[in-house]
Amino acid sequence: MAEKKSIIVRVRRQATPKNRPHWEEFELARRPHMNVIICLRDIAENPVTRDGKQTTPVCYDSNCLEEVCGSCAMVINGRARMACSALVDQLEQPIHIEPLSKFPVVRDLAVDRSIMFENLKRMKAWIPIDGTYDLGEGPRMSSDEQEKAYPLSRCISCGNCLEVCPQVNEHSDFIGAAIISQVRLFNMHPTGTMHARERLDAVMGPGGVADCANAQNCVNICPKTIPLTESIAEVNRQAIRRAVSGLLFG
Question: Is residue 99 a contact partner of residue 105, using CB atoms and an 8 Å limit?
């Protein structure tokens, strides 16, 4: 069977957060090794719909093109994924491209993921180093500890895990798997463990680890194969121990 020489792409458009979304269809010349980002770039170079109407370039976020920055997360053919690693040859046509639905739309495919970073701040997902005292070289981590911590550090804050989580919705404040996994990461760090209680107190609050319903969609969708369900289970164990010790010892 002859290879198709064109690609049909349908993009969900929305000019502003207040505008109603609509679909536009484009026909693009097919080239070897194309990904979805290349499709969007081709549309930007010639923003004309399949029926010949002039339109505007599609707005979207993208940076590294190597599945590292996390900015190009979209819903492609009904599945949350990174556009830079979504190869056209592996996608059914027409290719449907939509913004992530769990975040406010800024324009077209660009969404506002600031809630993720606000939740990281809520969970105190950092190691405070204010310069008031010299930490020196800092405590060392064993190779075993490094092997456990490294996969957790690969999170790119793409938001895919929140997109597929049924607990993340307009009626819930659930922070999601990515943020809980970062709590685990910083609690594992030899310096970060000094503030583990504060993080656990935060993660036991509204929208915290107790709101996870164990759907496990997050671990299946994560582009960096982070063991998110293991992180949730471990943070839940830590939170229970923290709660019990608080009852016994104050």
Answer: yes
Question: Rounded to whole angstroms, how far apart are CA atoms 200 and 147?
Answer: 23
CA atoms of 95 and 4, how far apart (whole Å) = 14
- 201 CB contacts (<8 Å, ≥6 apart)? 242
Helix (H) or strand (E) holding 232: helix 228-249
Q: Cα–Cα distance between 23 and 51 in angstroms, integer?
A: 13
pLDDT bin (cut points 50, 70, 90) of residue 1 is: very low
Three-state secondary structure call for residue 25: strand
Stated pTM of the model: 0.91
Residue limits of CATH 1.10.1060.10 in the chain: 114-249
34: nearest Cα among 60, 69, 8, 63: 8
DSSP 8-state class, residue 155: -
Alpha-carbon span 179 to 52, nearest angstrom:
45
Domain 114-249 has CATH 3.40.228.10: no
- The pLDDT assigned to 2 comes to 46
Q: Tell me the longest C-alpha to C-alpha distance in the chain.
A: 74
Taking the C-alpha atoms of residue 99 and residue 75, their distance in angstroms, rounded to an integer, is 6
Q: In this structure, what token pair is assigned to residue 117?
A: 């970073």
Q: Are 180 and 187 in contact (CB under 8 A)?
A: no
Q: How far is the C-alpha of 46 from the C-alpha of 80, rounded, in Å? A: 26
Q: For the domain 6-111, what is the CATH superfamily, name and number?
A: Beta-grasp domain (3.10.20.30)
